Amino acid sequence: MISQSSSESVSDVSLVNVSENIYVHFVSGLGSRLIHVEEVVEVIPMVMLDESGTDSSNSLRGLFNYRGKIIPVFDICSDAVKTTLGADKFLIVTCVDDRSLAVVASEVNQLVSVELSDISHITPVGESSFLVAKVNDLMIRIINTADFLGVTTNE
Questions:
Q1: CATH number of the domain that residue 104 is part of
Q2: Which pLDDT value is given to residue 82?
Q3: How many CA atoms lie within 13 A of 125 on its CB side?
Q4: Is the per-residue pLDDT at 15 higher than 50?
Q5: Could you tell me the pTM of the whole model?
Q6: What does the mean pLDDT of the chain come to?
Q7: Has residue 155 been placed in a domain?
Q8: Beta-carbon-side half-sphere exposure of residue 33 (alpha carbons within 13 Å)
Q9: Is residue 96 part of a domain?
Q10: Measuring CA to CA, how many Å separate 124 from each of 29, 78, 115, 127, 152?
């Protein structure tokens, strides 16, 4: 929740500060997920993907031409359960460090505000660490799109 003292006017609130804790809430084959709003460029309906060169052993589902730029599309479902890609799906186009990708979503629900105190860093034994946010008493995993492209961030 964004709080504002009575002495501040709306124009004094920085948009950068406002968006620090805002996430796009979406549903994939694995359930609810969050992506930081600053990474999201656009949400578009599913388009035809070029699946040549994709490997069924990873989450890369294909490539598509997004405004003249070739963008990889990732499905964050487990490798064993691939989402059927159809007109009922969406692509969340993101950009991190000038590198773009899209993530498959079944639903794109809303923007949610998450307090920093409600975000936990989880490190399972022998696995990569990840972030989880508490939203309305639910634990929702935060997707770090930089992980898909091997981009290092300062999180």
A1: 2.40.50.180
A2: 65
A3: 0
A4: no
A5: 0.77
A6: 79
A7: no
A8: 21
A9: yes
A10: 22, 17, 23, 5, 20
Kindly state the tokens that stand for 79. 């490798």
DSSP state of 42: E
Quote helix, strand, coil % in the chain, to nearest 5: 10, 45, 45
Residue 9 has pLDDT above 50, yes or no: no
Look at residue 39 and give its three-state secondary structure. Answer: helix
Position 103 confidence tier, pLDDT thresholds 50, 70, 90: very high
Say which range, 48-57, 87-96, 108-117, 129-138, has the weakest mean pLDDT. 48-57
The verdict on residue 46 lying in a domain is yes
Q: Which residues pair with 25 in a beta bridge?
A: 34, 110
Range of the domain at 129: 22-149
Hey, what are 62's tokens?
Answer: 């294909």
One-letter amino acid of 50? D
Report which of 147, 154, 134 is spatially closest to residue 34, judged by C-alpha positions. 134
Better-predicted residue by pLDDT, 27 or 18: 27
For 35, the token pair is 């992506």
